[in-house]
Write a structure and sequence with these properties.
This protein has 216 residues and is of the alpha+beta class. The chain contains 8 helices and 8 strands; from the N terminus they run βααββαββαααβαββα. The protein is globular, with a radius of gyration of 18 Å.
Length: 216
């Protein structure tokens, strides 16, 4: 069995380092060797923030089952549920996958550990140390004033409705400002409030999920 976590982190680093195409070729070769032409492979699971349906590194693979945070099937497994965590709701709650409300698992684990050492420990934004925020920062810096005003509205507790699609890659990052909201949603900076479909487009009403993300 092969487990690959955060497959897209090397792609992000390569994008900002100026060698994205070479990294795509390398990872495609590695994945085809490990996940397609491997006679000993029984099962594999790959995780990442970006969907894999259009990313060219997966074009040579067969029998992919893509489960994103917009899919209800494994909703309760993306984090801790309400029944599992009761005391840190304001800080780490707020994510909703399908009809299941979950907590940020990394932050809850770190908070519990801090309480083990100090029962009076305060809640902290542990999630900010889990990965780079380079893409989001880059998108926000290049956004126009209207987008920045919308972000300020979210920080003040408001919601926003934007088209959401899963099949974006790093090459698409600056093709439209709407990709900012895709990245914010799929990387956990925003949560789903509701959604509707208009023609072929899915519109998602979103908000900042909790105090931890608002602090960040």
């Amino acid at each position: 069995m092969i487990l690959i976590d955060e497959y897209d982190v090397p792609l992000e680093n390569a994008y900002f380092g100026g060698f994205y195409d070479r990294m795509v070729s390398l990872i495609r070769f590695l994945f085809e060797s490990a996940l397609k032409t491997n006679d000993y492979l029984e099962f594999a699971a790959v995780t990442g923030c970006l969907g894999i349906s259009r990313e060219s590194i997966f074009t040579g693979l067969n029998n992919l089952n893509v489960v994103s945070i917009t899919n209800d099937t494994f909703a309760e497994h993306f984090g801790f549920t309400q029944e599992e965590v009761e005391t840190v709701q304001k800080w780490y709650d707020g994510y909703r996958f399908g009809e299941t409300e979950v907590y940020n698992p990394w932050s809850v684990i770190n908070y519990v550990y801090s309480c083990y050492k100090n029962k009076q420990a305060f809640a902290k934004p542990y999630w900010s140390n889990t990965s780079s925020n380079s893409i989001v920062r880059d998108l926000v810096e290049h956004a126009d004033i209207s987008v920045k005003q919308e972000i300020e509205g979210l920080i003040e507790g408001g919601t926003i409705e934007k088209p959401i699609h899963e099949d974006i890659t790093y090459d698409d990052m600056h093709s439209t400002q709407d990709n900012l909201w895709n990245f914010l949603f799929f990387t956990g900076y925003l949560k789903k409030i509701s959604q509707r479909q208009e023609g072929e487009t899915i519109y998602m009403e979103m908000a900042i999920p909790n105090s931890e993300v608002r602090y960040i």
